[in-house]
Design brief:
The protein has 699 residues and is an alpha+beta fold. Among the domains are: 223 residues, Beta-galactosidase, Chain A, domain 5 (Distorted Sandwich), CATH 2.70.98.10; 99 residues, Up-down Bundle (Glutathione S-transferase Yfyf (Class Pi), Chain A, domain 2); 152 residues, Up-down Bundle (Glycosyl hydrolase family fold). The chain has 19 helices and 35 strands. The strands form ten sheets. The chain has an eight-stranded antiparallel β-sheet. Strand 1 and strand 2 form a beta hairpin. Helix 11 runs antiparallel to helix 12. The longest helix is centred in the first third of the chain and has 23 residues.
Length: 699
């Protein structure tokens, strides 16, 4: 008994060390320069609040509100988007300053700036030190003014992270009032990427002496920090925000809140323990961190979770399958949240933010997320979910203008002379959703529905020009677009593809890889065509800011290419897959501010990294079959078992890359629990635990 107790204590100590180590390897500044669009704001996993600095506004570079190379700070707002290509949020800006005049922005000491999960700190040029931490729905600030300086604070609820217009022009309604001498609260209606309403409650640790136009004067600093607490409610009113604050930060202990945030991240990140170099650990744990920032729970304290910030066009590909492995406990809540969103809008989510759907992308890729959860055995009201899927994929809905099911039925594709934007990409993306719906219909015994959706899932063949071996648009009479330039890239009206071109979208047939191989001339011709994709010149005709991270015409900085490398495994070219994966790792994932080659896109770029580092990837992200690649770390231990992760008593998946090194990037053999694997491994097998062993070689 004594030996067992010692073993338990020793095991707990190992987990504690691993948790601390994981947090220390996270660098929130990765992706904050270049095209990553990440932020260093303080947050907790899946929280509503991301509190931190805004260094710019009004352009594509500042979609998250922050850019590493900027020299001044406009203030500190309470919400931010991670890695998106469109700006929004930035709710309730705070700007502490000294002196009489309210500055537009304040320069800051770059060397003083620091960030870790749940904590951000910086010293402004006027000597004001700002520290920020967060809970799920609240932020807390410790503001230290220079002793003897006049301590002032601007509270700006008319701030919004936007693009191409002034922040205040996004605010349609703003009703704010001071609460005695120690607080302020209000309700705001914002019309930016989406139209939404939120309420806030703010409290100060000491009374202000005067206030004018929401500029609060706290008198001459005596050296004691001013603590500011801010709570948000995305769904309710001021009373709900006030209850959130009372529930999550009832006191004024900043360090206690920061410590609790650190503990939440420690628990979350320690679900995977990796071995490798410091840079490999920084990349891996920073990717996990970015993955777990969203989706965001927009419910109020004590309510069931309601997840939003669902960038499903991006995240269905790898982020959501990774959630089913690493955080399976949130999946039922995600399913219910998508159902709830569908009931609100009349169709299942496309791209939701704070409970509103902006419809900015194509397809309805909540469908594969939902069907994947169903096929993997997660609990849910699946009859109701299927009814919503069928309704969404067959009926025209008010206010949703992108899909025309009547045209798909009539032509088997979207004609470019009728659908004047992204006709090929929309045909392909809808075909994939249909395949997913067919799988669910078949398992539920809806045979006629299954036949209908399976037939429509083959529409990809109708936009594949066999004479070129490329996806190409057609008009309503069946004629191919002429002239046709497969390198032309664009987005929106006048373009046939979504943030890409024909070279990238020709491979967008995750549901039928064998069919695509056959359609492109068989295995050998297919491999030649795949090789040519990576060997073409790295140039395109047109300009889309999201199309970055090129290897030939392969584009790793945008999502439609993310599965393409794994075609090599499926056609028996494992060495080529390994070489391309290593190339992506070496070029496009670096532990520095400009180390990401494209928008992190709500964790999708990070999810690709995590999966590929472990040596397998959800080529078809619905159903639970993972295609083998080549691991990029020597060893990882993944804690499995819903509800048992905290104690470490659940099952584990150990991934070993024997003889791993810079030179040994190829895979000689793969075994799972001693049995050889060839191309794939199943979700159920991974979740049962065991050892996945790759024997690495130089060739």
């Amino acid at each position: 008994m004594r030996k067992q107790m010692v073993a338990v204590v020793f095991g707990a100590a190992i987990l504690a060390v691993a948790a601390d180590s994981a947090v220390n390897y996270v660098d929130p500044f990765v992706g904050t320069a270049g095209t990553g669009h990440t932020f260093p704001a303080a947050c907790v996993p899946f929280g509503l609040v991301q509190a931190g600095p805004d260094t710019g506004n009004g352009d594509w570079d500042h979609c998250s509100g922050y850019r590493y190379g900027d020299s001044s700070i406009f203030g500190f707002s309470q919400t931010h988007l991670n890695g998106t290509g469109c700006p929004d949020l930035g709710d309730v800006r705070l700007l502490p300053f000294v002196g009489s005049a309210v500055p537009d922005s304040v320069a800051y000491d770059k060397a003083s700036e620091s960030a870790k999960p749940g904590l951000y700190a910086v010293t402004l040029a006027d000597g004001v030190k700002v520290e920020v931490s967060a809970t799920e729905r609240c932020a807390i600030y410790r503001i230290s003014y220079p002793k003897g300086a006049r301590s002032r604070l601007l509270v700006d609820p008319r701030w919004c992270i936007t693009r191409g217009k002034t922040p205040a022009s996004c605010i349609q309604f703003c009703d704010v009032a001071t609460d005695g001498k120690t607080g302020v609260s209000g309700k705001v209606v914002v019309n930016n990427w989406v139209k939404r309403t939120y309420a806030f409650k703010m409290e100060f640790s000491r009374p202000f002496s005067s206030e004018r136009d929401l500029v609060f004067d706290f008198g001459s600093s005596q050296g004691e920090p001013l603590v500011v607490k801010v709570a948000l409610s995305a769904l309710g009113g001021v009373s709900d925000a006030e209850r959130n604050l009372a529930t999550e930060i009832p006191g004024w202990d900043f360090d206690r809140v920061a410590s609790a945030a650190d503990a939440k991240w420690s628990k979350m990140l320690s679900r995977v323990a990796v071995e490798g170099s410091d840079d490999q650990k920084r990349n891996f744990y920073t990717s996990l961190y970015h993955l777990f920032i969203q989706p965001n729970d927009i419910s109020d304290a004590g309510q069931p979770p309601y997840y939003s910030t669902l960038s499903t066009w991006d995240t269905f590909r790898a982020a959501h399958p990774l959630y089913t492995i690493l955080v399976p406990e949130i999946v039922p809540g995600l399913v219910r949240s998508m159902q709830r969103q569908g009931e609100f809008t009349g169709y299942l989510p496309i791209w939701t933010l704070w409970g509103r759907d902006n419809q900015c992308m194509i397809g309805t890729h909540s469908v594969p997320v939902l069907v994947d959860a169903y096929l993997k055995g997660f609990p849910g009201d699946w009859e109701s979910v299927y009814a919503q899927i069928k309704e969404t994929l067959t009926k025209r809905h008010e206010g949703r203008g992108k899909e025309r099911w009547d045209l798909l039925e009539r032509h088997g594709y979207y004609p470019y002379d009728v659908i004047r934007s992204e006709s090929v990409s929309r045909t392909l993306e809808c075909a994939y959703d249909d395949w997913c719906a067919a799988q669910m219909a078949a398992k539920l015994g809806r045979e006629e529905d299954a036949k209908f959706f399976l037939r429509r899932s083959g529409n990809w063949r109708n936009v594949l020009d066999p004479s070129l071996g490329l996806m190409r648009s057609r008009d309503s009479k069946g004629k191919w677009r002429d002239p046709f330039d497969p390198s032309a890239v664009g987005y929106g009206e006048g373009y046939d593809f979504t943030e890409g071109n024909s070279y990238q979208y020709t491979w967008h047939v995750m549901q039928d890889p064998d069919g695509l191989v056959s359609a492109l001339g068989g295995r050998d011709a297919f491999v030649d065509k795949l090789d040519a994709l990576f060997e073409r010149p790295e140039e395109m005709k047109g300009d889309v800011l999201d199309v970055t991270g090129l290897i030939g015409q392969y584009v790793h900085g945008n999502e439609p290419s993310h599965h393409v490398i794994y075609f090599y495994t499926l056609v028996g070219e494992r060495d080529k897959a390994a070489r391309r994966i290593r190339d992506v790792f070496d070029r496009f994932y670096l532990p520095k501010p400009d180390g990401l080659c494209g928008n992190d896109d709500c964790g999708q770029m990070s999810a690709w990294y995590v999966f590929s580092a472990l040596g397998f990837y959800p080529f078809n992200p619905c159903g639970g079959t993972y295609v083998l690649g080549a691991p990029q770390i020597p060893k990882a231990v993944v804690q499995l078992g819903n509800g048992k992760r905290e104690t470490g008593n659940g099952k584990t998946l150990t991934v070993m890359a024997k003889n791993f090194s810079k030179e040994n990037k190829y895979v000689k053999s793969v075994t799972f629990n001693g049995k050889p694997l060839d191309k794939t491994i199943e979700h159920a097998d991974l979740m049962a635990g065991g050892e996945l062993v790759f024997e690495m070689t130089a060739k």
